[in-house]
Amino acid sequence: MNSKHFAACSFSALFIALALALAPFSNAMTTAPTSVDLVVTGGTVVMMDADSQVLADGALAINGGRIIAVGRRDEIENKYRGREVINARGRVVMPGLINSHTHIPMTLFRGLGDDLDLNEWLTQYIFPAEAKNVTEDFVRVGTRLGLAEMIRGGTTTYCDMYYFEDAIADETAKAGVRGVLGETVIDFPVADNKTHEEAMAYTGRYVAKWQKHPLITPAIAPHAPYTVSEEHLRAISKFSERTGAPIVTHVAETKKEVSDVTRDHGASPINYLARIGFLSERVIAAHAVHITTEEIELLKKFGVGVAHNPQSNMKLASGVAPVPEMLRANIRLGLGTDGAASNNDLSMWEEMDTAAKLHKLHSNDPRVVSAREALEMATRDGARALHLEHEIGSLETGKRADLIVVDLDALNQTPLYNIFAQLVYATKAADVRTVVIEGRVVMRDRQLLTLNEAAVKREARAYRERVARSLALTPAVTGDAAAGPPPTKGKKKATPGRKKRAPRS
Ligand SMILES: [Zn+2]
User: Fold this and answer.
1) Closest C-alpha among 248, 304, 228 to residue 100
2) How far is ligand 1, taken at its centre, from the CA of residue 11, in Å?
3) Nearest to 274 by CA among 248, 237, 307, 235
4) Of 81, 111, 243, 313, which is the most buried if we count CB atoms within 10 A?
5) Would you state the pLDDT for residue 476?
Protein backbone atom coordinates (compact mmCIF):
# COMPACT_ATOMS: atom_id res chain seq x y z
CA MET A 1 0.00 0.00 0.00
CA ASN A 2 1.57 3.24 -1.05
CA SER A 3 1.17 6.40 0.93
CA LYS A 4 -1.31 7.89 -1.53
CA HIS A 5 -3.62 4.88 -1.16
CA PHE A 6 -3.28 5.03 2.61
CA ALA A 7 -4.28 8.71 2.60
CA ALA A 8 -7.38 7.93 0.54
CA CYS A 9 -8.33 5.09 2.95
CA SER A 10 -7.91 7.21 6.01
CA PHE A 11 -10.04 9.99 4.44
CA SER A 12 -12.87 7.51 3.73
CA ALA A 13 -12.69 6.17 7.27
CA LEU A 14 -12.85 9.67 8.67
CA PHE A 15 -15.92 10.44 6.54
CA ILE A 16 -17.74 7.27 7.71
CA ALA A 17 -16.90 8.01 11.33
CA LEU A 18 -18.26 11.54 10.97
CA ALA A 19 -21.45 10.31 9.32
CA LEU A 20 -22.03 7.80 12.15
CA ALA A 21 -21.36 10.44 14.78
CA LEU A 22 -23.87 12.81 13.17
CA ALA A 23 -26.57 10.14 12.59
CA PRO A 24 -28.58 10.94 15.77
CA PHE A 25 -28.99 14.51 14.49
CA SER A 26 -30.09 13.58 10.97
CA ASN A 27 -33.82 13.85 11.77
CA ALA A 28 -33.33 17.34 13.10
CA MET A 29 -31.29 18.21 10.00
CA THR A 30 -34.00 17.09 7.52
CA THR A 31 -36.73 19.08 9.27
CA ALA A 32 -34.75 22.33 9.14
CA PRO A 33 -36.29 24.66 6.52
CA THR A 34 -35.04 24.09 3.00
CA SER A 35 -33.72 27.19 1.30
CA VAL A 36 -35.65 28.00 -1.89
CA ASP A 37 -35.70 30.88 -4.38
CA LEU A 38 -39.04 32.35 -3.36
CA VAL A 39 -41.83 31.86 -0.83
CA VAL A 40 -45.20 33.54 -1.37
CA THR A 41 -47.01 33.41 1.91
CA GLY A 42 -50.17 34.33 3.75
CA GLY A 43 -52.70 34.88 0.98
CA THR A 44 -55.97 33.37 -0.14
CA VAL A 45 -54.58 30.89 -2.66
CA VAL A 46 -56.98 30.32 -5.56
CA MET A 47 -55.33 27.27 -7.07
CA MET A 48 -57.54 26.81 -10.19
CA ASP A 49 -56.77 23.08 -10.06
CA ALA A 50 -59.30 20.44 -11.12
CA ASP A 51 -61.06 20.69 -7.74
CA SER A 52 -61.05 24.53 -7.72
CA GLN A 53 -59.39 24.52 -4.31
CA VAL A 54 -59.11 27.78 -2.37
CA LEU A 55 -56.70 27.87 0.60
CA ALA A 56 -57.73 30.55 3.11
CA ASP A 57 -54.26 31.06 4.58
CA GLY A 58 -51.96 29.42 2.08
CA ALA A 59 -48.43 29.67 0.77
CA LEU A 60 -46.22 28.45 -2.05
CA ALA A 61 -42.57 27.49 -2.26
CA ILE A 62 -40.82 28.14 -5.59
CA ASN A 63 -37.45 26.95 -6.77
CA GLY A 64 -35.77 26.79 -10.17
CA GLY A 65 -38.77 28.48 -11.80
CA ARG A 66 -41.24 25.86 -10.62
CA ILE A 67 -43.73 25.49 -7.79
CA ILE A 68 -42.31 22.86 -5.44
CA ALA A 69 -45.02 23.03 -2.77
CA VAL A 70 -48.46 24.55 -2.19
CA GLY A 71 -50.24 24.29 1.13
CA ARG A 72 -51.18 25.84 4.43
CA ARG A 73 -49.02 28.79 5.45
CA ASP A 74 -47.69 27.18 8.64
CA GLU A 75 -46.72 23.98 6.79
CA ILE A 76 -44.88 25.81 4.01
CA GLU A 77 -43.15 28.23 6.42
CA ASN A 78 -41.93 25.33 8.57
CA LYS A 79 -40.50 23.49 5.59
CA TYR A 80 -39.13 26.26 3.39
CA ARG A 81 -37.18 29.44 3.78
CA GLY A 82 -37.30 31.76 0.77
CA ARG A 83 -34.26 33.75 -0.28
CA GLU A 84 -36.99 36.13 -1.42
CA VAL A 85 -40.38 36.39 0.30
CA ILE A 86 -43.64 37.93 -0.88
CA ASN A 87 -46.13 38.59 1.89
CA ALA A 88 -49.59 38.19 0.37
CA ARG A 89 -51.62 38.49 3.56
CA GLY A 90 -55.08 39.93 2.86
CA ARG A 91 -54.59 39.38 -0.87
CA VAL A 92 -55.33 36.71 -3.47
CA VAL A 93 -52.60 34.52 -4.92
CA MET A 94 -53.69 32.94 -8.19
CA PRO A 95 -52.27 31.67 -11.49
CA GLY A 96 -51.18 34.36 -13.93
CA LEU A 97 -53.79 35.12 -16.59
CA ILE A 98 -53.42 33.64 -20.07
CA ASN A 99 -54.32 35.82 -23.05
CA SER A 100 -54.86 33.27 -25.80
CA HIS A 101 -55.06 35.68 -28.75
CA THR A 102 -53.26 38.96 -29.47
CA HIS A 103 -51.36 40.92 -32.08
CA ILE A 104 -49.20 42.69 -29.55
CA PRO A 105 -47.55 45.47 -31.63
CA MET A 106 -51.03 46.68 -32.61
CA THR A 107 -51.06 48.49 -29.25
CA LEU A 108 -49.53 51.32 -31.31
CA PHE A 109 -52.79 51.47 -33.32
CA ARG A 110 -54.96 51.67 -30.20
CA GLY A 111 -57.86 53.99 -30.96
CA LEU A 112 -56.93 54.43 -34.62
CA GLY A 113 -60.39 54.58 -36.14
CA ASP A 114 -63.16 53.22 -33.96
CA ASP A 115 -66.86 52.61 -34.42
CA LEU A 116 -66.50 51.81 -38.09
CA ASP A 117 -67.60 48.85 -40.11
CA LEU A 118 -64.91 46.28 -40.62
CA ASN A 119 -64.19 47.13 -44.24
CA GLU A 120 -63.85 50.88 -43.67
CA TRP A 121 -61.69 50.34 -40.56
CA LEU A 122 -59.38 47.97 -42.43
CA THR A 123 -59.03 49.71 -45.75
CA GLN A 124 -58.86 53.32 -44.54
CA TYR A 125 -56.93 52.88 -41.30
CA ILE A 126 -55.30 49.56 -40.46
CA PHE A 127 -53.96 48.42 -43.85
CA PRO A 128 -52.53 51.84 -44.81
CA ALA A 129 -51.17 52.36 -41.30
CA GLU A 130 -49.42 48.98 -41.38
CA ALA A 131 -48.09 49.49 -44.91
CA LYS A 132 -46.53 52.80 -43.97
CA ASN A 133 -45.31 52.13 -40.45
CA VAL A 134 -44.58 48.50 -39.58
CA THR A 135 -40.85 47.90 -39.23
CA GLU A 136 -38.87 45.81 -36.78
CA ASP A 137 -38.44 48.88 -34.55
CA PHE A 138 -42.19 49.60 -34.63
CA VAL A 139 -42.83 45.98 -33.62
CA ARG A 140 -40.35 46.18 -30.73
CA VAL A 141 -41.81 49.44 -29.38
CA GLY A 142 -45.39 48.15 -29.66
CA THR A 143 -44.41 44.86 -28.04
CA ARG A 144 -42.82 46.60 -25.06
CA LEU A 145 -45.97 48.70 -24.62
CA GLY A 146 -48.17 45.60 -24.77
CA LEU A 147 -45.90 43.64 -22.41
CA ALA A 148 -45.94 46.45 -19.84
CA GLU A 149 -49.74 46.67 -20.06
CA MET A 150 -50.12 42.91 -19.77
CA ILE A 151 -47.79 42.57 -16.78
CA ARG A 152 -49.60 45.41 -15.01
CA GLY A 153 -52.87 43.55 -15.60
CA GLY A 154 -51.61 40.18 -14.36
CA THR A 155 -51.20 38.44 -17.73
CA THR A 156 -48.23 36.09 -17.59
CA THR A 157 -48.67 34.17 -20.87
CA TYR A 158 -49.93 35.36 -24.23
CA CYS A 159 -50.44 33.86 -27.66
CA ASP A 160 -49.51 36.17 -30.51
CA MET A 161 -49.42 36.43 -34.27
CA TYR A 162 -47.75 39.28 -36.14
CA TYR A 163 -44.75 40.21 -38.28
CA PHE A 164 -41.11 40.19 -37.12
CA GLU A 165 -42.13 37.64 -34.48
CA ASP A 166 -38.44 36.95 -33.78
CA ALA A 167 -38.17 40.52 -32.45
CA ILE A 168 -41.37 40.00 -30.44
CA ALA A 169 -39.84 36.84 -28.93
CA ASP A 170 -36.67 38.76 -28.09
CA GLU A 171 -38.59 41.56 -26.30
CA THR A 172 -40.83 39.03 -24.54
CA ALA A 173 -37.91 36.98 -23.25
CA LYS A 174 -36.15 40.14 -22.05
CA ALA A 175 -39.28 41.25 -20.16
CA GLY A 176 -39.52 37.77 -18.61
CA VAL A 177 -43.00 37.05 -20.01
CA ARG A 178 -44.18 33.70 -21.40
CA GLY A 179 -45.45 33.53 -24.97
CA VAL A 180 -46.66 31.24 -27.72
CA LEU A 181 -45.56 33.48 -30.54
CA GLY A 182 -46.55 32.82 -34.14
CA GLU A 183 -44.87 34.30 -37.18
CA THR A 184 -47.60 35.34 -39.61
CA VAL A 185 -47.69 33.65 -42.99
CA ILE A 186 -50.08 35.19 -45.51
CA ASP A 187 -50.40 35.10 -49.29
CA PHE A 188 -49.53 38.78 -49.76
CA PRO A 189 -46.28 40.69 -49.46
CA VAL A 190 -46.05 42.02 -45.92
CA ALA A 191 -43.65 44.03 -43.80
CA ASP A 192 -41.10 41.31 -43.03
CA ASN A 193 -41.51 38.79 -45.86
CA LYS A 194 -42.56 39.31 -49.45
CA THR A 195 -43.29 35.72 -50.54
CA HIS A 196 -44.50 32.44 -49.02
CA GLU A 197 -41.02 30.97 -49.49
CA GLU A 198 -39.42 33.87 -47.62
CA ALA A 199 -41.96 33.57 -44.81
CA MET A 200 -41.38 29.81 -44.48
CA ALA A 201 -37.59 30.28 -44.45
CA TYR A 202 -37.88 33.02 -41.81
CA THR A 203 -40.17 30.83 -39.70
CA GLY A 204 -37.80 27.87 -39.99
CA ARG A 205 -34.93 29.95 -38.62
CA TYR A 206 -37.16 31.54 -35.98
CA VAL A 207 -38.53 28.24 -34.67
CA ALA A 208 -35.08 26.60 -34.52
CA LYS A 209 -33.69 29.59 -32.62
CA TRP A 210 -36.32 29.69 -29.84
CA GLN A 211 -37.58 26.14 -29.47
CA LYS A 212 -35.61 25.31 -26.33
CA HIS A 213 -36.26 28.63 -24.54
CA PRO A 214 -38.06 28.20 -21.18
CA LEU A 215 -40.44 31.13 -21.84
CA ILE A 216 -40.93 31.17 -25.60
CA THR A 217 -42.87 28.64 -27.67
CA PRO A 218 -42.20 29.65 -31.28
CA ALA A 219 -45.15 29.00 -33.59
CA ILE A 220 -46.22 29.43 -37.20
CA ALA A 221 -49.30 31.56 -37.87
CA PRO A 222 -51.15 31.23 -41.17
CA HIS A 223 -53.47 34.23 -41.05
CA ALA A 224 -56.77 32.53 -42.00
CA PRO A 225 -58.23 29.95 -44.42
CA TYR A 226 -59.29 32.79 -46.75
CA THR A 227 -55.88 34.52 -46.92
CA VAL A 228 -53.61 31.45 -47.25
CA SER A 229 -53.99 28.93 -50.09
CA GLU A 230 -54.70 25.23 -49.60
CA GLU A 231 -51.22 24.35 -50.88
CA HIS A 232 -49.62 26.71 -48.38
CA LEU A 233 -51.83 25.52 -45.51
CA ARG A 234 -50.73 21.94 -46.26
CA ALA A 235 -47.07 23.02 -46.26
CA ILE A 236 -47.57 24.80 -42.92
CA SER A 237 -49.20 21.69 -41.49
CA LYS A 238 -46.21 19.60 -42.56
CA PHE A 239 -43.84 22.17 -41.05
CA SER A 240 -45.69 21.95 -37.74
CA GLU A 241 -45.64 18.15 -37.83
CA ARG A 242 -41.92 18.10 -38.53
CA THR A 243 -40.88 20.71 -35.95
CA GLY A 244 -43.60 20.32 -33.33
CA ALA A 245 -44.25 24.08 -33.55
CA PRO A 246 -47.88 25.02 -32.79
CA ILE A 247 -50.06 26.60 -35.49
CA VAL A 248 -51.85 29.83 -34.55
CA THR A 249 -54.64 30.96 -36.88
CA HIS A 250 -58.00 32.73 -37.23
CA VAL A 251 -61.04 30.70 -38.16
CA ALA A 252 -64.77 31.31 -38.75
CA GLU A 253 -64.63 34.90 -37.49
CA THR A 254 -67.30 36.41 -39.72
CA LYS A 255 -70.28 35.24 -41.77
CA LYS A 256 -68.52 36.58 -44.87
CA GLU A 257 -65.55 34.29 -44.22
CA VAL A 258 -67.86 31.27 -43.95
CA SER A 259 -69.66 32.10 -47.19
CA ASP A 260 -66.41 32.91 -49.06
CA VAL A 261 -64.66 29.71 -47.94
CA THR A 262 -67.79 27.66 -48.68
CA ARG A 263 -67.95 29.21 -52.17
CA ASP A 264 -64.24 28.60 -52.87
CA HIS A 265 -63.74 25.20 -51.23
CA GLY A 266 -67.21 23.65 -51.04
CA ALA A 267 -67.11 23.45 -47.25
CA SER A 268 -67.24 25.69 -44.19
CA PRO A 269 -63.84 26.80 -42.80
CA ILE A 270 -63.59 24.09 -40.14
CA ASN A 271 -64.84 21.31 -42.42
CA TYR A 272 -62.42 22.48 -45.10
CA LEU A 273 -59.47 22.54 -42.67
CA ALA A 274 -60.42 19.06 -41.40
CA ARG A 275 -60.62 17.75 -44.97
CA ILE A 276 -57.13 18.95 -45.90
CA GLY A 277 -55.62 17.42 -42.74
CA PHE A 278 -54.86 20.77 -41.15
CA LEU A 279 -56.58 20.28 -37.78
CA SER A 280 -54.54 18.70 -35.00
CA GLU A 281 -53.66 18.98 -31.33
CA ARG A 282 -51.02 21.59 -32.30
CA VAL A 283 -53.57 24.08 -33.67
CA ILE A 284 -54.76 27.18 -31.76
CA ALA A 285 -57.69 28.80 -33.57
CA ALA A 286 -58.97 32.26 -32.71
CA HIS A 287 -62.67 33.17 -32.85
CA ALA A 288 -64.70 30.11 -34.03
CA VAL A 289 -67.73 32.41 -34.01
CA HIS A 290 -69.81 30.97 -36.85
CA ILE A 291 -69.61 27.23 -36.25
CA THR A 292 -72.11 24.38 -35.99
CA THR A 293 -72.53 21.60 -33.43
CA GLU A 294 -70.91 19.22 -35.90
CA GLU A 295 -67.90 21.54 -36.21
CA ILE A 296 -67.58 21.74 -32.41
CA GLU A 297 -67.30 17.94 -32.48
CA LEU A 298 -64.52 18.22 -35.07
CA LEU A 299 -62.62 20.72 -32.88
CA LYS A 300 -62.96 18.32 -29.98
CA LYS A 301 -62.00 15.25 -32.01
CA PHE A 302 -58.79 16.88 -33.26
CA GLY A 303 -57.94 18.51 -29.91
CA VAL A 304 -57.87 22.01 -31.42
CA GLY A 305 -57.42 24.90 -28.95
CA VAL A 306 -59.89 27.76 -29.38
CA ALA A 307 -59.43 31.40 -28.34
CA HIS A 308 -62.67 33.22 -27.59
CA ASN A 309 -62.42 37.02 -28.02
CA PRO A 310 -65.74 38.46 -26.85
CA GLN A 311 -64.80 42.16 -26.83
CA SER A 312 -63.25 42.13 -30.31
CA ASN A 313 -66.19 40.13 -31.69
CA MET A 314 -68.59 42.66 -30.17
CA LYS A 315 -66.67 45.74 -31.27
CA LEU A 316 -66.38 44.57 -34.89
CA ALA A 317 -69.93 43.16 -34.75
CA SER A 318 -68.58 39.79 -35.90
CA GLY A 319 -71.09 37.70 -33.96
CA VAL A 320 -71.35 35.61 -30.80
CA ALA A 321 -69.37 32.37 -30.53
CA PRO A 322 -71.29 29.35 -29.15
CA VAL A 323 -69.30 29.36 -25.92
CA PRO A 324 -71.84 27.59 -23.64
CA GLU A 325 -71.98 24.76 -26.18
CA MET A 326 -68.18 24.62 -26.47
CA LEU A 327 -67.89 24.51 -22.67
CA ARG A 328 -70.37 21.61 -22.50
CA ALA A 329 -68.31 19.80 -25.14
CA ASN A 330 -65.17 20.39 -23.03
CA ILE A 331 -63.34 22.03 -25.91
CA ARG A 332 -59.88 23.44 -25.14
CA LEU A 333 -61.28 26.94 -24.78
CA GLY A 334 -59.31 30.02 -23.73
CA LEU A 335 -59.98 33.75 -23.67
CA GLY A 336 -58.20 36.44 -25.65
CA THR A 337 -58.27 40.19 -26.07
CA ASP A 338 -57.29 40.15 -29.75
CA GLY A 339 -55.20 43.12 -30.92
CA ALA A 340 -55.57 46.42 -29.08
CA ALA A 341 -56.81 48.03 -32.30
CA SER A 342 -60.07 46.11 -31.99
CA ASN A 343 -60.59 45.99 -28.21
CA ASN A 344 -58.92 48.60 -27.26
CA ASP A 345 -56.93 47.24 -24.32
CA LEU A 346 -55.25 44.01 -23.26
CA SER A 347 -57.11 43.54 -19.96
CA MET A 348 -58.04 39.94 -19.28
CA TRP A 349 -60.20 41.11 -16.33
CA GLU A 350 -62.49 42.93 -18.74
CA GLU A 351 -62.45 39.96 -21.06
CA MET A 352 -63.56 37.57 -18.29
CA ASP A 353 -66.31 39.95 -17.20
CA THR A 354 -67.50 40.38 -20.79
CA ALA A 355 -67.38 36.66 -21.57
CA ALA A 356 -69.57 35.81 -18.60
CA LYS A 357 -72.11 38.56 -19.33
CA LEU A 358 -72.28 38.34 -23.13
CA HIS A 359 -73.36 34.71 -23.09
CA LYS A 360 -75.94 35.24 -20.37
CA LEU A 361 -77.51 37.96 -22.49
CA HIS A 362 -77.22 36.08 -25.76
CA SER A 363 -78.71 32.85 -24.39
CA ASN A 364 -81.22 34.59 -22.14
CA ASP A 365 -79.90 32.39 -19.32
CA PRO A 366 -77.93 33.93 -16.41
CA ARG A 367 -76.62 30.50 -15.41
CA VAL A 368 -74.42 30.02 -18.48
CA VAL A 369 -70.71 30.93 -18.28
CA SER A 370 -70.41 31.32 -14.52
CA ALA A 371 -67.75 33.49 -12.93
CA ARG A 372 -65.75 30.36 -12.17
CA GLU A 373 -65.97 29.19 -15.78
CA ALA A 374 -64.82 32.61 -17.02
CA LEU A 375 -61.86 32.46 -14.62
CA GLU A 376 -61.07 28.94 -15.81
CA MET A 377 -61.00 30.13 -19.42
CA ALA A 378 -58.43 32.76 -18.42
CA THR A 379 -56.27 30.28 -16.49
CA ARG A 380 -56.51 26.48 -16.55
CA ASP A 381 -58.56 26.20 -19.75
CA GLY A 382 -56.46 28.91 -21.37
CA ALA A 383 -53.46 26.66 -20.76
CA ARG A 384 -55.35 23.79 -22.42
CA ALA A 385 -56.17 26.04 -25.39
CA LEU A 386 -52.44 26.70 -25.84
CA HIS A 387 -51.59 23.00 -25.26
CA LEU A 388 -49.54 24.01 -22.21
CA GLU A 389 -51.77 22.49 -19.49
CA HIS A 390 -48.92 20.41 -18.07
CA GLU A 391 -46.85 23.53 -17.46
CA ILE A 392 -49.13 26.44 -16.55
CA GLY A 393 -52.73 27.46 -15.74
CA SER A 394 -52.97 26.40 -12.08
CA LEU A 395 -50.98 26.62 -8.87
CA GLU A 396 -49.91 23.00 -8.40
CA THR A 397 -46.67 21.31 -7.44
CA GLY A 398 -44.44 20.77 -10.46
CA LYS A 399 -45.91 23.52 -12.61
CA ARG A 400 -44.06 26.62 -13.75
CA ALA A 401 -44.24 29.37 -11.14
CA ASP A 402 -46.45 31.87 -13.02
CA LEU A 403 -48.59 33.62 -10.42
CA ILE A 404 -50.07 36.95 -9.46
CA VAL A 405 -50.88 38.63 -6.17
CA VAL A 406 -54.11 40.63 -6.35
CA ASP A 407 -55.28 43.25 -3.87
CA LEU A 408 -58.69 42.73 -2.34
CA ASP A 409 -59.22 46.03 -0.56
CA ALA A 410 -60.16 48.40 -3.38
CA LEU A 411 -63.55 50.11 -3.06
CA ASN A 412 -64.77 48.18 -6.09
CA GLN A 413 -63.93 44.93 -4.24
CA THR A 414 -65.61 45.76 -0.93
CA PRO A 415 -67.22 43.78 0.68
CA LEU A 416 -66.33 40.22 -0.32
CA TYR A 417 -68.78 37.28 -0.36
CA ASN A 418 -67.59 35.02 -3.17
CA ILE A 419 -64.00 35.00 -4.38
CA PHE A 420 -64.74 33.84 -7.96
CA ALA A 421 -67.46 36.47 -8.48
CA GLN A 422 -65.20 39.12 -6.93
CA LEU A 423 -62.33 38.32 -9.27
CA VAL A 424 -64.43 38.19 -12.43
CA TYR A 425 -67.07 40.88 -11.91
CA ALA A 426 -65.39 43.39 -9.59
CA THR A 427 -61.60 43.21 -9.92
CA LYS A 428 -59.72 45.49 -12.35
CA ALA A 429 -56.25 45.31 -13.89
CA ALA A 430 -55.14 48.05 -11.46
CA ASP A 431 -55.80 45.70 -8.53
CA VAL A 432 -52.93 43.41 -9.56
CA ARG A 433 -50.07 44.06 -7.17
CA THR A 434 -47.24 41.64 -7.87
CA VAL A 435 -46.47 39.35 -10.81
CA VAL A 436 -44.16 36.32 -10.89
CA ILE A 437 -43.28 34.47 -14.10
CA GLU A 438 -41.08 31.36 -14.15
CA GLY A 439 -40.25 32.15 -10.51
CA ARG A 440 -38.97 35.65 -11.36
CA VAL A 441 -40.68 38.72 -9.92
CA VAL A 442 -41.44 40.99 -12.90
CA MET A 443 -43.69 43.44 -11.03
CA ARG A 444 -43.47 44.08 -7.32
CA ASP A 445 -45.96 46.32 -5.49
CA ARG A 446 -47.05 47.83 -8.87
CA GLN A 447 -43.45 48.58 -9.87
CA LEU A 448 -42.39 47.06 -13.21
CA LEU A 449 -38.97 45.45 -12.78
CA THR A 450 -38.15 44.35 -16.34
CA LEU A 451 -39.44 47.31 -18.39
CA ASN A 452 -38.89 51.05 -18.14
CA GLU A 453 -42.45 52.34 -18.07
CA ALA A 454 -41.59 55.98 -18.79
CA ALA A 455 -39.49 55.01 -21.83
CA VAL A 456 -42.18 52.61 -23.07
CA LYS A 457 -44.78 55.40 -23.06
CA ARG A 458 -42.44 57.99 -24.56
CA GLU A 459 -41.51 55.71 -27.49
CA ALA A 460 -45.13 54.73 -28.10
CA ARG A 461 -46.24 58.38 -28.20
CA ALA A 462 -43.49 59.17 -30.69
CA TYR A 463 -44.89 56.45 -32.98
CA ARG A 464 -48.35 57.92 -32.56
CA GLU A 465 -47.07 61.08 -34.25
CA ARG A 466 -45.49 59.14 -37.09
CA VAL A 467 -48.61 57.05 -37.68
CA ALA A 468 -50.84 60.15 -37.61
CA ARG A 469 -48.55 61.94 -40.10
CA SER A 470 -48.39 58.93 -42.39
CA LEU A 471 -52.19 58.90 -42.66
CA ALA A 472 -52.47 62.70 -42.72
CA LEU A 473 -54.83 62.56 -39.76
CA THR A 474 -56.22 65.77 -38.36
CA PRO A 475 -54.68 66.39 -34.94
CA ALA A 476 -57.11 65.82 -32.11
CA VAL A 477 -58.16 68.84 -30.04
CA THR A 478 -55.98 67.81 -27.11
CA GLY A 479 -53.01 67.11 -29.34
CA ASP A 480 -52.38 63.57 -28.19
CA ALA A 481 -55.73 61.88 -27.75
CA ALA A 482 -57.67 59.92 -30.36
CA ALA A 483 -56.97 60.52 -34.00
CA GLY A 484 -59.53 62.52 -35.89
CA PRO A 485 -61.26 61.45 -39.11
CA PRO A 486 -59.12 61.12 -42.23
CA PRO A 487 -59.33 63.90 -44.78
CA THR A 488 -61.01 63.17 -48.10
CA LYS A 489 -57.69 62.34 -49.78
CA GLY A 490 -57.25 59.45 -47.31
CA LYS A 491 -60.11 57.74 -49.10
CA LYS A 492 -58.19 57.54 -52.36
CA LYS A 493 -57.72 54.01 -53.52
CA ALA A 494 -54.10 54.60 -54.46
CA THR A 495 -52.75 53.90 -50.99
CA PRO A 496 -49.91 51.40 -50.65
CA GLY A 497 -51.99 49.66 -48.03
CA ARG A 498 -54.55 48.64 -50.60
CA LYS A 499 -52.51 45.67 -51.77
CA LYS A 500 -51.47 44.67 -48.37
CA ARG A 501 -53.32 42.51 -45.92
CA ALA A 502 -52.65 42.23 -42.28
CA PRO A 503 -53.61 39.90 -39.46
CA ARG A 504 -56.20 42.17 -38.01
CA SER A 505 -58.42 41.11 -35.14
ZN1 LIG B 1 -56.78 38.27 -34.32
Assistant:
1) 248
2) 67
3) 237
4) 313
5) 55
CATH (domain of 278): 3.20.20.140
Residue 476 lies in a domain: no
| pLDDT averaged over every residue in the chain | 90
Ligand 1 mean position, distance from CA 101 (Å) = 6
Distance 338 CA to ligand 1 centre (A): 5
Distance 504 CA to ligand 1 centre (A): 5
DSSP string, 417-430: S-HHHIIIII--GG
CA of 68 to the centre of ligand 1 (A): 36
Give the distance (Å) from ligand 1 centre to CA of residue 307: 9
Centre of ligand 1 to C-alpha 238, Å, is 23
pTM of the model: 0.90
pLDDT at 16: 45
Give the helix ranges, DSSP H, for 407-483.
419-421, 453-470
Q: 247 C-alpha vs ligand 1 centroid, how far in Å?
A: 14
Q: 127 CA distance to ligand 1 centroid (A)? A: 14
CA 71–ligand 1 middle distance (angstroms): 39
Q: Binning pLDDT at 50, 70 and 90, where does residue 26 land?
A: very low
Is 105 part of a structural domain of the chain?
A: yes
Q: Kindly give the distance from the C-alpha atom of residue 156 to the centroid of ligand 1, in angstroms, as a whole number.
A: 19
How far does the centroid of ligand 1 lie from the alpha carbon of residue 27, in Å?
57
pLDDT of residue 474: 66
Return the ∠ at Cα 131 (arms to 129 and 136), rounded to 5°.
100
Residue 30, in any domain of the structure: no
pLDDT digits (tens, 9 = 90+) for 30-65: 579 999 999 999 999 999 999 999 999 999 999 999
47 within 8 A of 53, measured Cβ to Cβ:
yes
**Å from CA of 223 to ligand 1 middle:** 9
In this structure, is residue 242 part of a structural domain?
Answer: yes
Calculate mean pLDDT across residues 182-188: 96
Number of domains in the chain: 1
Ligand 1 centroid to Cα of residue 443, in Å, is: 27
| Nearest of 108, 113, 97, 100 to residue 315 by alpha carbon | 113
What is the C-alpha to C-alpha distance for residues 377 and 355, in angstroms, rounded to an integer? 9
Domain that holds residue 141: 98-393
